[in-house]
Design goal:
single chain, alpha+beta, Leucine-rich Repeat Variant, Cyclophilin, 8-stranded antiparallel β-sheet, 8 strands, globular
């Protein structure tokens, strides 16, 4: 379905008009590549010019109808780029164009359109996607099924459409995305998938049951605990952690000795969750096995033992093992052990917590604050909330919030650190002592003093919650404030205000485009520099990782990452978050999870998948990426289509399993593609 060809001069004129919309760069952004003189379109070729324009429209989140419609008459490469751009721009008007591309003669165009329709979140696309689910190309069909799951289409409708295919072909398209169909029918479908002989189909069924757990799936999960596939066993254990009963601890216990570290980790977490729901003494056998696992060769297993050990105390062997790690373990193990001893009310825990509160290690002091909350040590918390380190103050305020200590939280609203203010504001969301007018004043103050917009977006969330849960008292003032914020200079704040108004049943405000400070010449240069994958070497305390950056799939993200690496922003930073069998996360100049480069990136969601070793952009909400990144330690399909994948580990993968929370990123350097040696 191609539109009639139009004059390319019109496209250039439209591009020039859009490109001059704004000129100032956001605060703190590294200098963009030097701008070149404007060239006539013929100098680069129409295809290149179209792609550059689409990149610009995507980054600005600008739906320029005439330019976008014209791209329908472009080459297959242009139409593929158009499909990607329409999904990223996110404007509902793009649905009709994408539905046309869904029947394009070029298979890659159809694949891109199917994926983009899932990102667009327009339920009116359901019928077209159901038809596409039986496309001659298997990948088009699978992407259409994935999109239907994201859009909340009934699973029965999808299965009826897939009935036109051979059963094996239908399952290959459906099984990987079963987890996206959050309805009772999913359990029966997952059981059918588990009966298949194809490994990937069975894994899809296990993942669905373990990820989107339902009580009806408990028996099927129990039957999978002895499966020959470690992936299946791990997800069966995870699922039982969500829906299992106390009796399932006996079924899970043998898996604590499983050969797979992933299974051991998921089993430990499952046991902790089950005990957290049950008012019962922990089984003695678990305590003995966990004491042994406290010395496991895998650091992720040891960390997970400590994360859940508090629920299994008192147990003499386990308590002795936790005490040993608190005294002799690695820094992260000392922190986790302190929390476990406090949660388990171990003898002497209060004294250990008081000692830790005076440590020179800010992370240990933060854990002491959390432990003090477990023990109700208000006097100690009052001291820690005044700590010089924001990380410790945030932890202390979180503990005080659980103890409903309002006064310290109100005082923290004046803290100089935005993370501390945001923490206090969120904790006080419905507190009668906090007037709505003060929330509005805090949002305004954060704008005036140039603070990170986390405070402002938290404030918007608080306002919306007040209007929902206390409408008589707060709704009029909240609506007035949100409408005012709809004209804010920060695009993320404008969008947050518009989203909040829409959720409250009010007319949605027009958010407008993002002011990126870049013109079309800059986007041309970015496109040239990212036309092929690039490689970087990431040196850590535990060894070196070689990472291939997926520059063609995420050009703006890769450009930002490379600029930050050249400015040595990552060098000497810490991996501030490590979740065994999930992610290793770093790139925060503050080192506590609240920092960034001073600007936000728009998401570049693509079809790359979160398999083990994928490199993704960390977010605090859509389009909030910056400098923080993460590596996945195992497949995480639920992250697909929600976080930008912009690379993968291609060398030194074993280093990922050795990294501990708190380890350093020594340096990030670009590699010469030919020699694989760092560029100097």
């Amino acid at each position: 379905m191609n539109a009639p060809n139009r004059s390319f001069a019109l496209a250039a004129a439209l591009a020039s008009l859009v490109a001059t919309a704004c000129s100032s760069a956001p605060r703190g952004r590294p200098s963009p590549p030097a701008r070149e003189p404007e060239r006539a379109p013929a100098a680069e070729g129409r295809e290149f010019e179209s792609r550059a324009l689409l990149l610009m429209l995507s980054d600005k989140r600008l739906y320029e109808a005439a330019s976008l419609e014209m791209m329908l008459g472009g080459t297959p490469v242009v139409r593929r780029a158009l499909a990607v751009a329409l999904g990223r721009i996110g404007d509902p008007r793009g649905r009709s164009l994408l539905q046309g591309l869904l029947v394009d003669a070029d298979v890659e165009v159809r694949r891109g359109a199917a994926f983009a329709l899932g990102e667009l979140d327009e339920k009116e696309a359901t019928r077209a996607l159901v038809v596409a689910s039986v496309d001659d190309d298997e990948e088009v069909g699978a992407l259409a099924v994935e999109a239907l799951g994201k859009l909340g289409a009934p699973l029965g409708d999808v299965r009826r459409a897939l009935g036109a295919l051979e059963p094996a072909a239908a399952w290959r398209r459906l099984a990987p995305y079963l987890f996206r169909f959050e309805e009772p029918a999913m359990v029966a479908a997952a059981r059918e998938a588990l009966a298949a002989r194809v490994s990937e189909v069975r894994r899809g069924g296990a993942y669905a049951l373990g990820r989107e757990t339902q009580a009806e799936g408990a028996e099927a999960l129990r039957a999978l605990l002895g499966d020959g596939d470690a992936f299946v066993r791990a997800w069966a254990a995870r699922g039982l952690g969500e829906v299992g009963s106390l009796a399932d601890l006996a079924r899970l216990e043998p898996l604590l000795g499983d050969a797979s570290a992933a299974v051991r980790i998921q089993t430990l977490r499952a046991g902790g969750k089950i005990l957290g729901r049950a008012e019962a003494l922990p089984p003695l056998g678990w305590g003995a096995r966990m004491a042994a696992l406290a010395g496991d060769a895998n650091p992720g297993v040891r960390a997970t033992v400590l994360e859940v050990a508090g629920r299994f105390l008192p147990h003499p062997e386990l308590e002795a093992a936790v005490l040993r790690l608190h005294g002799e373990g690695e820094p992260r193990e000392r922190e986790l052990a302190l929390g476990a001893l406090a949660a388990g009310r171990a003898a002497g825990a209060a004294g250990l917590v008081r000692d830790a509160a005076t440590s020179g290690d800010r992370w240990l002091r933060a854990r002491a604050a959390e432990a003090a909350g477990e023990l109700g040590e208000l006097e100690l918390l009052d001291r820690l909330r005044r700590d010089k380190q924001p990380l410790v103050r945030v932890a202390a305020l979180g503990a005080l919030a659980t103890l409903e200590a309002t006064e310290p939280l109100l005082e923290a609203l004046g803290d100089p650190d935005p993370a501390v203010r945001a923490t206090a504001l969120e904790a006080l969301a419905l507190a009668p002592e906090l007037a709505t007018a003060r929330v509005v004043a805090l949002i305004d103050a954060a704008r005036a003093d140039g603070a990170d917009n986390d405070v402002r977006r938290t404030g918007i969330d608080v306002l919306a919650r007040r209007a929902r849960e206390r409408p008589a008292a707060d709704r009029p003032a909240v609506l007035e404030a949100l409408r005012g914020l709809g004209g804010d200079g920060d695009w993320l704040v404008r969008r947050a205000a518009a989203d909040a108004l829409a959720e409250l049943g009010e007319p949605r405000l027009v958010v407008g485009p993002v002011e990126t400070g870049r013109n079309l010449a800059t986007y041309r240069q970015i496109l040239r520099q990212t036309d092929a994958p690039l490689r970087v070497e990431l040196a850590t305390d535990r060894g070196k990782l070689t990472v291939e950056l997926a520059c063609p799939e995420a050009p703006l993200t890769c450009t930002s990452f490379l600029q930050l690496a050249r400015h040595k922003l990552f060098d000497g930073n810490r991996f501030h978050r490590v979740v065994p069998e999930f992610v290793v996360q770093g790139g925060d100049p503050r080192g506590d999870g609240w920092g960034g480069p001073g600007y936000s990136l728009r998401d570049e969601i693509n079809r790359l998948r979160y398999r083990r070793g994928a490199l993704g952009m960390a977010l605090s909400g859509p389009d909030t990426g910056g400098s923080q990144f993460f590596f996945t330690l195992s497949p995480q399909p639920h992250l697909d289509g929600g976080y930008t994948v912009f690379g993968r580990v291609i060398g030194g993968e074993e280093v990922l399993d050795r990294i501990r929370q708190g380890d350093r990123i020594v340096a990030v350097r670009e590699l010469d593609a030919a020699s694989a040696a760092p560029l100097r």
